[in-house]
Design brief:
alpha/beta; Spore Coat Polysaccharide Biosynthesis Protein SpsA, Chain A; 5 helices; 9 strands; 4-stranded mixed beta sheet; single chain; about 25% helix; 3-stranded mixed beta sheet
Length: about 200
């Protein structure tokens, strides 16, 4: 992210870390880092997202865009989302979280929360529990309280794929195919200059 699309983003941003990060890598020189006394293990990320949202609300940020560090984003497309139709919880909709989590949620690779949705999530005990994927926990926290909006422009993978109508794609790993660097090279070449409504 820090070596590809992130420097072009004209939005406030924060990297959120728990108490035992695995290494900062390319984020080592990033000034906007939040650390919270919560687990950094993948299945425990819900409390970390909750802590970040609580911090953001207290510091008058929002609406909130949350993404993984292996998500590739085209910044100028992302920046226009808050000016579109109003939303509370927006991204790639999944009808349920699988065995043990039979409620819908928005896939966690890239999604938006309004101020209201963030407030509801922060207040929910679902976001304070370890052992539940953070996107599933967010869906559980918001189910029945806010509207869930599917937006196919936020592609969840598992194979990263960018095109003329996507805002983001997931699983763009350094050793993947295609890599985040390869997608970014295509972006720099002008391949994704045109931006069309999602089909």
């Amino acid at each position: 992210m820090a070596a590809t699309w992130l420097p072009s983003l004209k939005m406030d941003r924060m990297f959120v870390l728990g108490d035992k990060p695995q290494g900062l890598g390319s984020f080592a020189n990033e000034p906007n880092i939040l650390r919270f006394p919560v687990s950094d293990i993948f299945c425990d990320i819900g409390p970390k997202v909750r802590a970040a949202l609580e911090w953001g609300l207290k510091n008058k940020f929002g609406p909130f865009f949350i993404c993984d560090d292996d998500t590739y984003v085209i910044p100028e497309r992302l920046e226009g989302v808050p000016d579109e139709e109003p939303f509370d919880y927006l991204g790639w909709y999944r009808p349920d979280g699988g065995i043990g989590y039979p409620l819908p949620y928005i896939q966690g690779a890239a999604y938006w929360l309004s101020h209201h949705a963030a407030s509801v999530a922060v207040a929910s005990p679902e976001m304070a529990r370890n052992g539940i994927p953070d996107d599933v926990a967010t869906g559980r926290a918001l189910f029945g309280a806010v509207e869930f909006t599917h937006d196919s422009r936020f592609h969840p993978g598992p194979v990263p794929e960018m095109n003329e109508y996507r805002i983001s794609t997931h699983k763009a790993l350094p050793l993947g195919s295609p890599t985040m660097y390869a997608i970014h090279a295509e972006y720099l070449s002008g391949k994704y200059t045109n931006f069309f409504p999602a089909p």
